[in-house]
Amino acid sequence: MSSRNESLQVFLDATFVAFDQFANAPEARHSVRQIFAALERPGAARAGEGSRLPVCAQLDVALSVDTSYPSLMRLIEGFKGIEPMLEWRRRSKYDHTASGNFVDGHANAMIIGPGGLEERSDLWIGVTLMAPHVRYPDHDMRPRKSISCFPREKFQQGEGDWFSPGIGGSFYNVPDIKHAMRSLDTPLFAFWALLAERPAVLK
User: Fold this and answer.
1) Which residues, 6+ apart, have CB-to-CB distance to 38 below 8 Å?
2) Other CB atoms within 10 Å distance of the CB of residue 176
3) For the whole model, what pTM was predicted?
4) Which pLDDT tens digit goes with each residue over 148-163?
């Protein structure tokens, strides 16, 4: 069995505690347990250096979260330990629902999954960063998704109203549902986890 980078394991341990604490929907809790049970067996480690995009200059502000939850602080510190190794990328396909500043105002990084620090196809864990006043395009994914996020962000599922999960808030997307997100006066920063029950491609 392959071994796992120590910093990555620290992050994953903190992620499980935070997701398990804040994932309130039964479906989300079930997905979290499935994802982290699968992670007990490490995947193949990716070699190479990380890379940033200009929007990553927003990271310090995005990670400056005022919270009394120790689990969230451990999650943030764990993320800081692996962030220099991540390859930040822009979404390559988007439509009219994206804001005009979307291209340079966002970045995604895969932590576990295709192109991540650990290559695997059964599940994905990643992060999205957006500068203030950016709208991510409507999109859907076939896998089930549980998201843990931080404050002052707005999300939408299907035709529902925009909502803010708050500090450490999370929500669950059923397969194929359209969803969107937008930042307000501060950067948006969200972790997401996907259980890849069917093949999917992040575009």
Assistant:
1) 122, 123
2) 10
3) 0.84
4) 665 555 555 556 666 5
